[in-house]
Each structure stands twice: as structure tokens, then as C-alpha cells.
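Dear colleague,

Following up on Tuesday's group meeting, I ran the structure prediction for the two-component complex that the binding team flagged. I've pasted the input sequences exactly as they went in, so you can double-check that nothing got truncated or mislabelled along the way. The C-alpha cells for the whole assembly follow below. Feel free to forward this to whoever is handling the docking comparison.

Inputs:
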Amino acid sequence: MTAFGKLFRTTAFKLTLVYLVVFSLFAAFLLAYFALNTRRLINEQITTAVDEEISGLSQHYNRGGIRRLLFVIDARSRRPGSSLYLLTTFTGDRLAGNVAQVGEGVLDRSGWVETPYRRTEESEDAAYALVRVYQLPGGFRLLVGRDLEERERLYAVVMAAGWWSIAIVIVLGLAGGFLVARRMLRRVDGMTETTRTIMAGDLSERLPVVGSEDELDRLAVNLNAMLERIEALMRGFREVSDNIAHDLKTPLTRLRNRAEDALRTASSDEDYRAALQSTIDESDDLIRTFNALLLIARAESGGASTHMDSIDAAEIAHGVGELYEPLADEKGVTLKVAAEGPLAFVGNRELVTQALANLVDNAIKYAGGETPSEIVIRSAIDGARVRLEVADRGPGIAAEDRARAIERFVRLERSRSEPGAGLGLSLVAAVARLHGGELILEDNAPGLRSVLSLPTNGPALPASGRSEEQA
Amino acid sequence: MRLLIVEDDRDAADYVARAFREVGHVADLAADGEEGLALALDRSYDVLVIDRMLPKRDGLSLIGELRAKDIETPALILSALGQVDDRVKGLRAGGDDYLPKPYSFSELLARVEVLARRRGGREETIYRVGNLELDRLSHRVTRGEEEIVLQPREFRLLEYLMRHAGQVVTRTMLLENVWDYHFDPQTNVIDVHISRLRSKIDKGFGQPLLHTIRGAGYMVRA
């Protein structure tokens, strides 16, 4: 498509054309109306004036006979800018007046007629006049009329003005439409260009926003917000696949090696049984890791599909406390719950419970030490946030390691000997993010205090990209 | 017990069917949703095991169709989708239990047997196993002449185990039905609860009633 063709196809240009046609029609209508009315008005003026003259002249005739009429017509004919007069006998012989000649047969009928005429004192060129023929008693015919030149001149002026205005409307309209369309086209072309780059795989590209806050800008802002979202989702996916590749391959290799080893070295049923059992255990671990990964990925890619309800943090704290109390007890750890309910907030009960359970599980794992230890699950509302915290007296995490501890699959050097896939904290962090909150690791001096801080109103909707109507 | 397994993965279906037959059940196979529906309408089964994603007609729609025709055969949904919301959707569609893939056969067997048993029979108010007695109305537990004091959760745990006396109950089933949690705690917390319960109901009474079934779960049996 040529650049010109593209221009003609733009909505802006098409709209301009439509407007142009509408305005031209309107101007033409206005012009016709004006012209016709002018004409009518002039005709009315002429007829009124002529009627008056005829009635005056016939009075003169009635009072003074043909002589007086002749005299009056003669006098009036000589005045400058006079009307047209012609008095004839019933045979049509000219008696008086300033008209030399009128159209054929005009004098034979009474009434109004438009006719070409010639004045007595003037040269050949014929003009048009609106005349009235009147039969006087005694067979005389009286013609009185007015020249139409003035009317025609006015008419011509109006028509010329009209045509000019239509021409100007069309030229200006076309030029305006062309400019508007080109401006629109340039911006749309810019957007199309960017879209192409994005489609080619560069998700970091953004549509240009000129800052005029017009409809194109609003569209660009919204599309950019959408791109932002898509990019975040894609990043999540990429990270998941990276992690899966990196962290599932190791246990899978182990699994395979063990099976291979059993096949090569096992000699008794007992050996095979043991090898198979360890294979099943290993694959169960793999499944657990995989599920945790999926959950993290889902939490990070946004929780559009996650069901959120109004739930009670105190109830969750007590539930988890009750679930883990025997385990803690067995490990020689006192597990306490300090939560006065109800502490209502919007969230997913299942996920928050799992997150808190993970924290408690971790705390119990690391609390086991020399001294009798204590773990406290605490829950409280703090302004617009609900806090679910697990405080232990274990070795804690050094300040510089805390951020790293939340990252996926990172296990701190010190805890290498403990079992667990190291997904615990990153899963908790993912659940926190899904709820629009965060996981904070604090110093419990001594020990670690893990705080799940969640907004009571649930995750906020993405703020950018909402149009003003909704806001 | 007669089962219908609707599963499009041939290998998995054959394996599960063979395993069910080994423990003495009859299992029919259907490879897609339409075939499964036809069989379920045609014959009488004790339990349906239905994969959620099937060719021709998906599992949820199959169950919906059966329920619409007033066929209330208990149905267990197998699914690769294991998230909380997916489970809720499955149960809302008329499924009676939901097991995410991959699952162990012992887990599947335990759940299917519980579903089959649940069908008939009204709920008793007093459960008895050996000389152990649990009164669901007065919340009293006695063994022989001796009254046993249980925490509320221990009571619910024992109640669930005794309701399914003689059947294997897995750890996940306990977590789901006694605690109403549907996630996998990293440590086996359930084992500790069971050993506490065991110390209360079995310790010092000679014959043990609460048994650990290796690789599967627990069972209360005289």
C-alpha cells in the first residue's frame, strides 16, 4: 500500500470527507435559500411600487382624462431613475412613455409579465423588466414596470459568494483532514512499529506515550501496563523452567543412578526391594519439590485464579500450632500460640496455612539444640496489615544472608546437614507476594523471627492502566 | 467391589486395573469420556475412578451427566491439576474425592475402599473396635472399663479411624478429613499425632488396636 493510499484509508481522513460533504451540502442549501429569498423580496418591492403607480396614474386619468395622463407620464418618464411607462391606444399605437419596445404580445394581455424592453432614449441593448399591463377605460393600455438589472446583479453577487465559500470549505477541509490523518497515522505507525519489535520477542519495548492524554495515549498506557504484566509472567515462566532444569535434574540423576546401581549390584530380592523403596521415596521427594515449584510459579505469576475469602489469622495460627505441637514436643521444643481472634483478613486459607506451617516446620527443624527451646506463633492486626509471625530461639540467619534465604532453592551453608529441599522460605515468600504482602526475616535476639505481613484487604489490583472512568 | 476406571493413558489404566484385581476387586476400563459414560450408565459400579482430562468428554462433565441422571455412584477424580482451587472445582462438579497425580496405588486403594463403604449404611452413634468404644454424642472414649481422656483433635482423629475400622487410612486422608488441610506438610506431623493417640488408647492394654500399615498408612482393627 502506498503512503498516500494508507492516508486515504485512515479513519480521520474518512471522517473529514464525510464532514466535508455534510458542510458543502449545508452551504449549498444556505446559498439557494438566500438567493431565492432575495429574488422574492425584490419582486415584491417592484410589484408594490408598480401597483401604487398604476393606481395613481389611473386616478389622474379618471380625474383629468387622457390629456392629464399623457402629461403626467411624460413628466415622470423624464425623471432620472424613473420607472418604465408606456401608454398606447387600443390598437397599440404608442402615445407616451419612455419605453420604445416590449416583447411581442405583452400589451395584449392585462397582468404581470417579465419581458425584454428597450428605452426610447437608449441604444440597442435590450434589458429585462417586470411590467404590469393595465386596461384603462376607453381602450387605452397602460404599461408600468421596473428594470430587473438590480435584481440580477444582487443575485449574481450572492451566487458568487456562495460558490467561493463552498470552494474554501472543501480546500480547508481536505487540507485539515490530510494533516489530522497524517498525524494520527504517524503515531499509529509508531505503535505498530513497536508492536512488531515486541512480537519479534523483545518484551522490554514499550509503546510511545506523547503525554497529551488523548485517547491514543490512554490506549498506549493501557497496552504498556498489559505488556508489563506479560513480561512479568514470561519472566516467571522462564525462571521456573530454569529452576526445574537446574534443580530437578540433580535428584533425577540420583534416582537414575540408584536404579542403575541396583540393577548392576543387587543379588537378592531383599536388595531389589530396598532399591525400589528408595526409588519411590526419592520420587516422592521429587513430586514434593515439583509441587512446591508449581505453587511458587503460580504465586509469582499472579493470583487471578486464586480464590480469596475473608479468613481469620488467629484461627490459622491456632490450627497450625495444634498440628505441630506434638512434633515440637517430641523434639523437646515448647510451641506456644499467642493470637487473640478473630483477626479477619482477605486471603486463601489453604495457602496461608501452608505458608505458616512451613515457617513452623523450619523453626522446629532448626530449633533443635542443646538448650530447651521455645517457638512462639504470634498473630496480630497492625493497621491495615495482619502479621503472622513465628519466633524461634534457634541459630537464626545472619543479616547478610536473609535476603538470599528467601530465594528459591538456596540453602544456607550452615543448614546443609538438615533435610528438606530448601523451598520452604521461598514458598512462603511466594504466598506472601500472592496476597500482596511480604515475608520479613528479623532478628529475634537470639533466634529468627519470620514475619508474614499481609494486607487485610487482600491483594490490590494493579493500579496502572486503569482508565479514569473506573477510578 | 466393582470399579470403573476411566483413564486415557493405557499404561496407567492397565497398571491400576491389575493392582485392583490383585487385591480382589473387579475393574472395568474405559479409554474416553463417552465410553466411560456409556459403561457407567449401563452397569452398576461401587466406585468410579475418573481422570479429569479425557478425550471426547472431560471427567467433570461425565460426573455432571451422571449426577443429572440421578446416578449417585461415588466418584474419585484423578487429576494432574493439584491446586486447591482445582480440587474445589472437582468436588463441586459432583466428585466425592480428588486425588492429584502422581499418586501411589496404596493411596488410591485406601480412598476407593472408603468411598465404597461410605455408600450404604447409616451413621452409628457409637463405634466399637474390640473393647474400645467411642461415643460420638457424649464424646466419651472407653477401653474396657477405663475411660480415656482425649483432646478434641485426638477425638476426631480416633473417630475417623474407627469409622473406617478395618480399612487403611492414609496420612493425606487424615490431614484432609481430620484437619481439613490439603497441602503436604514437609515433615510427617501426622505420625506424631498418631503415636500420641496410640500411647493413650493402646499403651498398657495388651492387644494393640491402632496399626501402622507400612507404605500406606494406619488402620484400627481388633
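DSSP finds nine helices and 13 strands in chain A.

Cheers,
M.
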